[in-house]
Amino acid sequence: MRHDHRRNASDPAQIREEPPVAHSVSTTQLAGRPTGPAEPSVGTLAKSAAADVSTLIRAEIELAKTELTTSAKRGGIGAAAFAAAGVMLAFAAFFFFFFVAELLAEWLPRWAAFLIVFGLLVVLAVVVALIGYLQVKKIKKPEKTLETLHDLPDLARREAPGQRQHDLPTVRNGKVVVADPHAPLR
């Protein structure tokens, strides 16, 4: 509550004796400590440390964003350059096959030369498609990952090493292995 000392002196109800209020911090020396600004309390230090950690984490995130943005831009430019090179190579291949057909036309009728080049391109396309199909067919489901994801709700409980009832899936050297349920987590 704010105390106004400029009260109306004619009103006896407003005149009362109030104890004086201190408006400044005492600089009395306590237990051998120097006078002047007080040392910060543990709470103040903890708040300051938390704020510093928060600022540091924000700065690290900003640095990571900046680095990743730069890397992504360079990666995008590189991918675009490879795509442009691929398109140019496709156009160059057209002229190469046209050249082969014209070369064969020196010894064969023109239509036969172009038909041979067309047939070779179809056979080459079928072979490349077959290789691609066989590679895609070799792709397996991530069965261990699916299995561990299925068990995840049970493992979500934090259990002490001596109380675990489930084997723990961990990743070592790029492979999922099942650890002893009593082994400490790393």
Query: What is the beta-strand fraction?
Result: 5-15%
> Which structural class is indicated by helix and strand composition?
mainly alpha
Please, what is the average pLDDT?
75
* SS field, number of helical segments: 3
Radius of gyration: 40 Å
Strand ordering within the main sheet: 1-2
Outline, from the CA principal axes?
elongated
What is the number of E strands? 2
Uncertain residue ranges: none
Give the N-terminus to C-terminus distance in angstroms. 58 Å
- Specify the helix fraction band: 55-70%
Largest sheet: 2 strands, antiparallel
| Strand/helix succession | HHHEE
Which key phrases capture this entry?
single chain, 186 residues, mainly alpha, two-stranded antiparallel sheet
Description of the molecule:
This protein is mostly helical. It has a domain at 42-137. Helices cover 56% and strands 5% of the residues. It is built from 3 helices and 2 strands. It has helices at 42-104, 110-137, 143-155, and strands at 168-172, 175-179. It has a two-stranded antiparallel sheet. Helix 1 packs antiparallel against helix 2 (110-137). The chain is elongated. It starts with 41 loop residues before the first helix and ends in a 7-residue tail after the last strand. The mean pLDDT is 75.
What's this entry about, in short?
The protein is mainly alpha-helical and 186 residues long. 56% of the residues lie in helices and 5% in strands.
